Amino acid sequence: MNYKNQNDSKVRAKKHLGQHFLKDMNIANKIVDGLSGHGGYNKVLEIGPGMGVLTQFLLQKTDYSTYVIEIDTESVVYLKKHYEELTPRIIEGDFLKYDTSEIFPEPFAIIGNFPYNISSQIFFKVLQNPDQVQEVVCMLQKEVAQRIASPPGNKDYGILSVLLQAFYDITYLVSVPPGAFDPPPKVQSGVIRLARNATKSLACDQKLFFRVVKTAFNQRRKTLRNALKPIGEMPEHPLLTKRAEQLSVADFVELTVIAETVIKANQ
Questions:
Q1: Rounded Cα gap, residues 135 and 131, in angstroms
Q2: Which residues contact 54 (CB under 8 A, 6 or more apart)?
Q3: Residue 186 binned pLDDT confidence (cut-offs 50, 70, 90)
Q4: Please, which pLDDT band fits residue 185 given cuts at 50, 70 and 90?
Q5: Which end of the chain is more exposed for a tag (fewer CB within 10 A), N or C?
Q6: Angle between helix 119-126 and 142-149 (nearest 10)
Q7: How many CA atoms within 13 Å lie on the side-chain side of 235?
C-alpha cells in the first residue's frame, strides 16, 4: 500500500504536548489490528492522531467509522490536508475536557499513541463511564503499560491495575523501542488492549472503592490495617494483614464493603 509521506509539510513535535510521532508502519499496523471489535461497536475514536500514522490504517477498516480528536492546531491542519475524507470526523479539542456522549451516544472504542504525561488522566476519564468505552488499544510508556496489565502479587501492580481490571480484561500486546518514534522518547513503550468485561457494577460503593484502592496503595509497604487508617479503624479481618499489591479486585470490593460499615458507624 502507499503510505502517507510524513516529510511533506511535516508537523513539528511539541514537547509541551508530549508529542512523539510513531514512524514505524509495521508497529502502527499492529496497533490498529489490536482492535478486536469487542462489544460490537461501530465507531472508533483516535486520541492525538498527530500526522495520521494510525489513522491511515484505521480508515481502511470497514467494520467501523473512524473519528479523531486532536488538540494541536498544526496537526489538525495537516490531517485536513492529507485525509480529506476524514475532515467531518475531526474533533478539534482536548479529550480530557470533551463530552464524548455528544458524538458517541452508543458504545465505542478508543485507540491512540497516548501522550505519556496524560495517559493516567485518559484512563481515569474512561473509568467515568466504562459501559460507553467497550475497548481501548493504546501505546504508552512501557512501565505504565506493564503496571496496568500486571496481576496481583506483582510489584508492578498498582492503583490503575485494580481500577481498570475491575471493568476490563487487559492484554499486553507488544513492546516498542524508542527508535520507532520521531523524536525518540527516553523510555521504552508498550501497547495494551482493554476489553470491557462482564462486570456491570461493583458490589460496593464505587466512589469509596476508588478511595480505598488509592489509599491502600499510597502506603503500599504497610499492611492494609495501617495503610487504611485515614478511612477509619477497621475491624479484624484476614485481608487487613496483607499489603495492597496482594489483593485482587474482588478482595478490594470486599474491603470496600467493610470500610463502608466503618464509615457509617462513625457518622
A1: 10
A2: 22, 28, 31, 32, 46, 111, 112, 113
A3: confident
A4: confident
A5: C
A6: 30
A7: 12
